Amino acid sequence: MNRSRTLWMVAVSAMSMGAMSLVAGAVCAQQVAGNTVEDRAVNAAREYVKQKKLNNPKITILLNSLYQNAQPAYNERWEKLTGVRVENVPLGYTDIPAKVMAEAVAKTGAFDIFNDFPYTIPDAAGAGTLAPMDLWVARGKPDYSGVAQGLIGQQYFDGKQYAVILDGDHLILVLRKDLVDNPEVQKEYRAKFGKALGCPETMTEWEQQAAFMQTQKGQTRWGIKFDQPLYGAMGYRSVNFSYRHFPAYLGGLMFDKDMKPTINTPNGIRAIQQFTSIVKHMPPDIQGWGTPQIYPFWASGQAFSLMSFPSIVGFGHSNPKSVVKDKQLSCLVPQVDVGGGKLMRRIPQAAGTGYMVNKHSKHPELAYWYIQWLTGPTVGDEAVADPKGFWDPFRESHRKNEKIIAKFGSKQFIDTTLDGTKHVVSLLMLQGNYEYFKILDNNLADVMSGNITPQVAAQRIEKGWDAVTVDVGRNTQIQEWRRSVQTGIYIDKF
Amino acid sequence: MTNDPSAPAPSRARSAYSGRRARAPIVRHAVLLAWSLIVLFPIYWMVMTSFKDSGEWVTWPPRWVPYEPTLLNYRQIFIPADEARGTLARQATEQAFSIWKALGDSLLICLVTSFISLLLGTFLAYAISRFQVGGKYFRYVILTIRMVPPIVIAIPLLMYYAIMIPYATESVLGFRISLFDTYVGIGALYVAVTLPFVIWMMLSFIDEIPYTLEHAARMMGAGRIYVLRKVVFPLVASGMVVTFLFVFILNWAEFLLALTLTYPDVTTLPILLNKFQSASEGRLYGPQAAIGTIITVPVVILGITIQKHLIKGFSFGMIRK
Amino acid sequence: MAARRGSLLPELWPAMSTTAGMHAQRAPRAGAFARLGAWFAQERVFRLIPFVLVEAMFILIVIVPFILTIYISLLRWRANRPFEQATFQGFDNYVAVLGNEAFWTALGRTFYFAGVAVTLELLIGFVLAMLVNRLNRGQRFYITIFLIPMMIVPVVVGYNFSMIYLDSGPFNQLLAPLLEPFGIDPRIRWLSHPIAAQWAIILADVWQWTSLTFLIFMSGFAALPRQLINAARVMGASRSQIFWKIELPLLKPAIVIAVVIRGMEALKMFDSVALLTTGGPGTSTQTIAFYMWEQVWVFNKYSFGAAASIVLLFIFAILIFFGIYMLVRQRSIVMQQGI
Predict the structure, then answer these.
(1) Is residue B190 a contact partner of residue B113, using CB atoms and an 8 Å limit?
(2) Which of A177, A231, B26, C149 can bridge A329 by disulfide, Cβ–Cβ 3.0-4.6 Å?
(3) Cis peptide before C281 (omega within 30 of 0)
(4) Among residues A272, A246, A274, which one has the least CA distance to residue A458?
(5) Which residues of chain B neighbour C58 with C-beta distances below 8 Å?
(6) What is the nearest CA distance from C149 to chain A, expressed in angstroms?
(7) Strand A160-161 to strand A224-225: parallel, antiparallel, or no bridges (unpaired)?
(8) Contact flag C300-A101 (C-beta cutoff 8 Å)
């Protein structure tokens, strides 16, 4: 044990020495010519093709299938600019991590670029299947200005950059504007709670609103006859989604300085309690729903509020069957009381995707230049404005981008989601994170089914997380955890 | 039953019997028809859904026939990859997959592996039946392979295909050969996992051919292979067809091994269908139903043509006529 | 040599076919291939060819990976480290597997699913086969329909049932008249309620695989000796007597086959779980196959998965041995009786 650890330390230090010298070399290396990020990427790619004398160069993207309608247009543009063909291999996002990890073992080089959530980075980088980008970044000088640290920080792991993010998928709360603006509703709500109905300040207030708005089918309230039920709230409560929402309820770090889980504390139990109790105001099937069920349901006007990904506003605006067009009020994710009346607003970056380079690719550098071009301030903004895409606003400059505003149909939404970036926290960026997530989700599901109490769930989660930590290696986990907390991706520090 | 007044009642027992006989078929048919409906209902639902437009996939009450039948779902899956994608989408963000590549791969893999499996299996079944090759219990040893859950071999196979063979070939031949995500890799596996079925089904056919027939031919100086070709094969030909089709269906349906060991270079139909469908991902019921129909109909037709022989093949050599 | 190559096929074929083959041994041709053919045709060689081929394939595809698995199961390797950095750690993974509550729960759940599903399949399949067997006409029609489910790709079945089980799906609509009078909400959450989801999986399995048990029982019924039964009837045996005393004992081999084959297959249950519920809600529908798939392909715990594979294989080996033993015994009884 001791010896292997020593060996490991030696290996790590040797590798970091190597990386440092490489970075040092890169700084000395000549920078790429060009005035914009995109120009530099194009020039560098052309130069690379020329230098390596490539014939019909091609790069392949393992693409999140959500983007398969939008991505081809950019691939074609890139081919026109550089002569490099780009091919998509679409795959569902639940299957991508497995393919990335299989590639770590198989080393086929079948893909040059992986398009996935940043949470794949820790395991994939640890397994050595992702290429660090620092060298190329130093030459290509991409522009990440106006992007919040909670978002940008997810590009890095272990001090190296492994991804470029093109998606601000942090959560948002949407209310039904028509109901909020209805004077009858306001009158009744005010009479009951002594407060105007509007964006809830806290999760408690949201639940209160949800209970208030819950309406049975056939009822007549506020002069409206409800032909279909109105559910007070909606959110993601299925396995594989709960963990994306839970940090908003926890309102703090998931572990302390020594990787002891903070879940089995009064605050953690409170978070589980709040996360699960609002479910009674949600559609009964919510535990089995993912985006394809939730989005159309919201668009059909059967819920008062929904905590979801920002693209829901675009969906509600542009879906031809939507009845909530121009009836959506965007709100920041409510705050939680983490104890002693201390209010915290933490907005998880729940599903933003980025682009990573496969280390076993034949042309990793070429792959990177495509990524830099695609995610640059100009092309990237066009992508965010693309009505076919699922890329969501994340850069300050998007506030003024007319096309993006038109796509989502609401300036108020763009402002809200960009205000939200101040509170954005990353999901867990640790090796073994998918197992941490799954343990959390399974126990939350058990609480929602009424099988166990939040207290028991907290104990089980703590125990499960500890076991993962031990399995991955406690010391390395502690180091990684401390380093990532220091970078500020979780906002909170110890 | 017994006090049926209309019956002339020549004897009590006789009337009870005929009364039963009159009624029993109705009850029987009622039960059998009920199960027929249960069996056909999901298939009916799939075929109907494949003609529904997106608005009719999920409604309450559900629609038993499409109110506005459309062929859009079929057009979506038959459009060539990349080309025209999006123009057929109902919404900008809808994902359509072309079926051609997967259809071709599935056909190729299933046909070739079923054929190889049939060939090997028939010869081995013959050898087992005639010479007791491998000992008395060899046929059972083979069956164990089929009984091992695929998940148990999926993990070692990934290691084997992805690590061991590349390392071995690199050190011996000087270049990496990986069986991961290749036709050979998945094909060899399909042969291995279907072989037990082939052997067992063929055994039940070959065991029935009297050995004396071959013996006589051999006596007359016929070569071993000649006997096989002229005496044995004609007698088990229908059995071989049945076995081939059955193994074809098995391979056509295989999911777990393909999921873990292939994609994107090799894509089978179940994997393609899975891309439209996983519990936490998008469910495009219409195109999925269209694919489901496409991959179900031919196999069901095949199955119906061989069903008479299936009953024989499934006796596993234990239920003898 | 070039000329020889041209005549390769004609030389090879006669040796294997047509009348020329009859004399291949006695009049050996000059061609190497023909001689090879003759060598193959010798009994002592011929009988071993398929055996050797098949054995070689099994060794390559099944045995070697297994040795590799045993090796990997002794390592400390989550795939968040390169394989080259994996260290040897002995039996820790086995200790982890054996002490893992989720592993045993998933295994127990698999047995529960398989037990319930196979019991239902056997009962329904038996009753259907019996009824069809007694029909004078229309047998073909029912057999054709009843055998359809087993020809459908399980992924399609999974997908199909996910649509039928929707809370606003046709299944709930059909159940509504049965449930509403009792004040039960007919919108049953088939896929998101822990217990309903388990039954959803079981029912989908029953729908698909009753066809197989039906098929096995049909072949059993078809093989029943008619004369014996007719004789018994003539001698005044009642229907139930014939069934319990004659038919059922004679059907025992079929029952054993159905139990063994179907039971072993049911324990592999993966496709429907992956497509219908992905093991959820929580872990309430996680079967052992799905559990292991998740451990390896989602959590990247390769060496843990390898150890779990070996443990599982041991457990299955006992079952397989038991199943095979039953088959062997039945077969020897059948062979002795010579029915």
Answers:
(1) yes
(2) A177
(3) yes
(4) A272
(5) 145, 192
(6) 26
(7) unpaired
(8) yes
pTM across the whole model:
0.84
The strand ranges marked E within A92-239 are: 113-116, 156-157, 160-161, 163-165, 172-176, 220-221, 224-225
pLDDT in tens, chain C (339 residues): 333 333 333 333 333 333 333 444 444 445 777 777 777 666 667 777 777 877 887 787 778 888 888 888 998 888 777 877 788 888 988 998 999 888 999 999 999 999 999 999 999 999 999 899 888 788 888 888 898 898 888 888 988 898 888 877 888 888 888 887 787 777 788 887 888 899 999 999 999 999 989 988 888 888 788 888 888 888 888 888 888 888 888 888 888 888 988 888 888 888 888 888 888 777 888 999 999 988 888 888 888 999 999 999 889 888 888 888 888 888 777 767 654
Chain A residues with CB under 8 Å of B265 CB are 110
Residue C192 to chain A, least CA–CA distance (Å) = 5
How large is the angle between the packed helices A203-213 and A183-193, nearest 10 degrees? 120
CA triple A29-A35-A36, angle to 5 deg: 100
Whether residue B93 and residue A69 make contact (CB cut-off 8 A), yes or no, is yes
* Interface-testing mutation among C13, C128, C150, C163, with chain B (most B C-beta atoms within 10 A): C163
Which of these, A375, A480, A426, A351, lies nearest to A150 by C-alpha position? A426
CB contact under 8 A, A123 and C194: no
Distance CA A383, CA A406 (A): 13
Alpha carbon of B280: minimum distance to chain C alpha carbons (Å): 8
Hey, is B301 helix, strand or coil? Answer: helix
- Residue ranges of the alpha helices (H) in A222-265? 242-250
Chain C residue with CA closest to A4: the answer is C87
Q: Which chain A residue shows the shortest CA-CA distance from B271?
A: A91
SS3 assignment, position A365: helix
Nearest to B288 by CA among B305, B307, B306, B269: B269
Other C-beta atoms lying within 10 Å of the C-beta of residue C137: 7
Question: Is the CB of residue B178 less than 8 Å away from at least one CB of chain A?
Answer: yes
Token duo for residue B168? 């071995």
Compute the distance between CA of residue C297 and CA of residue B261 in angstroms, rounded to an integer. 11
Across the interface, whether the CB atoms of B95 and A390 are under 8 A apart is answered: no
* CA A109 – CA C199 distance, rounded (Å): 43
* C contact test, residue of A435, A437, A443, A477 with most C CBs within 10 A: A435
Cβ(B286)–Cβ(B219) under 8 Å?
Answer: no
Asked if A298 and A312 count as a contact pair (C-beta separation under 8 A), the reply is yes
- State the Cα angle at A455 between C95 and C106, rounded to 5°: 35
> Which residues make beta-bridge pairs with A261?
A255
**Amino acid found at B123:** F
Distances in Å between the Cα of C212 and the Cα atoms of B194, C118, C127, C265 are 17, 11, 13, 11
d(CA C7, CA A261): 78
Q: What letter would DSSP give residue B91?
A: S
Query: Which residues, including other chains, have CB under 8 Å from residue A287's CB and lie 6 or more apart?
Result: A237, A238, A279, A445, A448, A449, C189, C192, C193, C280, C281
